[in-house]
Write a structure and sequence with these properties.
The protein has one domain (10-388). It has helices at residues 50-53, 130-139, 301-308, 377-388, and strands spanning 29-32, 39-42, 45-49, 68-73, 90-92, 101-103, 126-129, 144-150, 164-174, 180-185, 199-200, 250-252, 255-258, 267-268, 283-286, 296-299, 317-326, 360-370. It is built from 4 helices and 18 strands. Helices cover 9% and strands 23% of the residues. By secondary structure, the chain is mainly beta.
Length: 398
């Protein structure tokens, strides 16, 4: 596999991206120490925007087939098979006519073919034994798991069309005793002005959500009518308050607007509440990169600390992932905010449904807290131009 720069033309010739010699299997990724300028914390999850960092990671289906694939397009048969000790990949909706949501708890979207069973599996989560995961990390040049995400919404129309609701619960389960610790990628109260967002540079250790007992009504349980209320918008009139209980879905921004230059500014709304462009926006970055380029890298530092601790017996543990994307109109009420109108549905909040497909989620070996060269000034200018639409990007679709 080869990495490529997220660059177009001479404007981005100065971009400094992560690079390294290609491995025969799944390329590792190096990430810098998390700060308020390069990450946003969503509950227990620390999320990096790779375009802001100047890191390119290509992720076509054939390029990630040796990684640990959690979810991919339903036609990607060459990447649906993982090694023993891990579930095969779940199929995500493909194309503009597919479902506007995805859930590992949805009985209609099981993995294409089941792997041989192993201790700790469930039918509504994607599962992997920690021993198998650690063997994968050691064989692929990294110390900790990093989750990579492809943002593949429509790349035209309003800013909201490029956004997507996403949520995950990660459970570390002792298969001998049943003891379980939960970690969440979920929306938090924040000062960015963005509903269902997170905290720039937040400390995941301060998240006090339901990390020891699972008490959320949604999206924890399988999709059932009337249980989407907490998965909808938070922080707007008439909607539930957005707390730190791990129950609220993240609105992943496809178009990320910043209040300062790339690498310096923090996320803010692209538009004003009454409409029109936000004059505080200094630069815009496109995280909606399509199916073949990774948009975000996600790390769970608290989980990593547990499985890296001396004396931890990986053979006794399994990791379960409950993953939700988009919006299931059958499980939503009008209290969730203004409707999207997509696919004849008026209930799903704007910026919540899957409207293009297919999104991909996969795991690679990571080396964290590395010294990564900052993008050059020329590259920063070029990134801003990409965001403002001055440099065209061709959609990659299978």
């Amino acid at each position: 596999m080869r990495r490529k720069l997220l660059a177009t033309g001479a404007l981005l010739s100065g971009l400094v991206a992560y690079s390294g010699s290609a491995l025969a299997v799944c390329d590792p990724i190096s990430l810098p120490t998390a700060t308020a300028l390069n990450t946003v914390t969503f509950g227990d999850a620390v999320t990096y925007s790779l375009p802001i960092l100047g890191i390119g990671y290509q992720s076509g289906p054939g390029q990630i087939q040796d990684c640990v694939v959690v979810a991919t397009g339903s036609s990607g048969t060459e990447v649906t098979t993982n090694f023993a000790g891990a579930d095969n990949a779940y199929p995500t909706p493909s194309g503009t006519g597919g479902l506007p949501y995805f859930s590992t708890g949805d009985a209609t979207t099981p993995p294409a073919s089941p792997n041989p069973s192993f201790t700790g599996q469930t039918s509504t989560t994607w599962d992997i034994s920690v021993a198998a995961l650690k063997s994968f990390l050691a064989a692929n040049g990294g110390t900790d798991p990093v989750v990579l995400f492809n943002h593949n919404q429509t790349n035209s129309g309003s800013t909201a069309d490029q956004s997507l609701f996403i949520w995950a619960q990660v459970a570390l389960v002792n298969t001998q005793t049943g003891a379980t610790t939960y970690f969440y990628a979920s929306a938090e109260n924040n000062a960015t002005g963005l509903p269902n967002f997170g905290i720039p540079g937040g400390n995941p250790a301060l998240f006090t959500g339901t990390q020891t007992t699972a008490t959320n009504t949604y999206p924890l349980a399988p999709d059932t009518p009337g249980t989407f209320i907490q998965g909808g918008y938070c922080g707007i009139p008439g909607a539930p308050a957005c707390g730190t209980d791990g129950a609220f879905m993240i609105q992943a921004q496809g178009q990320v607007c910043l209040n300062g230059p790339v690498g310096i500014g923090q996320p803010i709304p692209c538009t004003l509440p009454g409409g029109g462009n936000n004059p505080a926006v200094v630069a815009t970055v496109n995280d909606n990169l399509g199916a073949n380029d990774v948009a975000n890298a996600i790390v769970f530092p608290e989980l990593n600390a547990i499985i890296d601790a001396p004396g931890f017996d990986a053979s006794q543990y399994v990791i379960r992932v409950d993953l939700r994307m988009g919006c299931n109109p059958a499980t939503i009420t009008s209290a969730n905010g203004p409707g999207s109108g997509l696919q004849g549905d008026a209930a799903c909040p704007n910026g919540s449904p899957l409207d293009n497909g297919f999104e991909q989620v996969f795991i690679v070996a990571g080396n964290l807290n590395q010294v990564i060269p900052e993008p050059s000034s020329v590259a920063l200018i070029g990134s801003a131009l990409i965001g403002f639409g001055w440099v065209a990007r061709r959609r990659r679709r299978r």
